[in-house]
Specification:
alpha/beta, 12 strands, Aspartate Aminotransferase, domain 2, 13 helices, 7-stranded mixed β-sheet, globular, Aspartate Aminotransferase, domain 1
């Protein structure tokens, strides 16, 4: 085991997943069809929203959510800097201007105060990712009076003050990429209580067989992906329990390490999609050490958005970017792998 390399993340795929996908392949109905319809229905029931639209990716879901709200050139959309570039891409696809905000260093989520200071007459929406599985202050953001799109790519199953994330915003988006909380391989979802908004998303996600031409997209999910998603969704609570159990072990084992561990805040039920710890010095030094010890830790965000856009400032984001590491945590880790990760982290810190 000492020479075995433990990746930063990997999907949790079981025999029942293979059987579900094989069943769809054998049926001959592999494009968008009844499995997508059923996946949308079950996911709607899970989140507690009335309407859903499955998409080909989380980025596609966010792009269509913005378009459904009427976001276009000349509008502004507020986004956090400490997030993956998919969020930036989705805003730029619409022609709108991304307005980047700093973060709350305690949770790495977008700062309510920073959002408040970024609002202008051109603000059309704010995208609120619940980073690494830790819910943002969504109730305070809703009070600001601008449409909130929740980005739940890393947080499906998390709760804020007893309510599931994804059930607060006017629209919410999810990603089911291979290493997300649960997977369809590639895929996403838009959810809302608004029939009109989801009807708009569904119109835009496919271009064919329309009476009137308008610019639309090929953003459909296939029944192959949906069949995998349905089976994975049935195991979600088990996945989440496993994540929390591993996180509890890390909290106990790392309590005396030279690390700032993830925040545990009252009213926020963290799912630990990522176990993000903050180092005293430059994280790159520790990332190199973990790699040499056959455990892949990573920066939780590759490059902040304000750097992509060559914007100055954002001190809290810069501090997080320079000093945070993500320690492997996912349901398919074996007990032996968990022991090795703990030993390596304790050795380094």
């Amino acid at each position: 085991m000492s020479d075995y390399f433990i990746p930063h993340s990997r999907p949790s795929v079981a025999g029942s997943d293979i059987k579900a996908v094989s069943s769809v392949l054998e049926s001959g109905q592999i494009a968008q069809g009844p499995s997508v319809d059923e996946f949308e229905k079950q996911f709607s029931d899970f989140i507690g929203k009335k309407e859903t639209a499955a998409t080909s990716s989380g980025t596609a879901a966010l792009h269509l959510a913005l378009l459904a709200l009427g976001v276009k050139g000349g509008d502004e959309v507020i986004v956090p800097s400490f997030v993956c570039t998919a969020v930036l891409n989705a805003v730029l696809y619409t022609g709108a201007t991304p307005v980047v905000a700093d973060i709350d260093p305690g949770t790495y989520n977008i700062s309510v105060d920073a959002v408040r200071g970024a609002i202008t007459q051109k603000t059309k929406a704010v995208i609120v990712p619940h980073m690494f599985g830790c819910p943002a202050e969504i109730d305070e953001l809703l009070k600001l009076g601008i449409p909130v799109i929740e980005d739940c790519a890393q947080s499906v199953g998390a709760h804020y003050k007893g309510q599931k994330v994804g059930s607060f915003g006017v629209l919410s988006v999810f990603s089911f990429y291979a290493t997300k909380v649960f997977t369809t391989g590639e895929g996403g979802m838009v959810v809302s209580d608004s029939e009109d908004l989801i009807a708009g998303v569904k119109d835009l996600r496919e271009y064919d067989n329309k009476d009137e031409y308008a610019l639309r997209f090929n953003y459909k999910m296939t029944d192959i992906h949906a069949a995998l998603g349905l089976n994975q969704l049935s195991h979600l609570e088990k996945f989440l329990d496993r994540r929390r159990m591993i996180a509890d072990s890390y909290f106990e084992e790392f309590k005396d390490c030279d690390l700032s561990l993830p925040a545990r805040k009252e009213g926020r039920e963290h799912i630990y999609y990522r176990f993000v710890a903050q180092t005293e010095g430059d994280a790159s030094v520790y990332l190199e050490k973990s790699q040499k010890n056959n455990v892949m830790c990573q920066r939780p965000v590759y490059i902040p958005l304000h750097i992509c856009l060559t914007l100055p400032g954002f001190p809290k984001t810069m501090e997080a970017w320079k000093k945070t590491i993500s320690i492997p945590l996912y349901p398919s880790l074996t007990e032996e792998e968990i022991e090795k990760i703990i030993a390596v982290v304790k050795k380094i810190f």
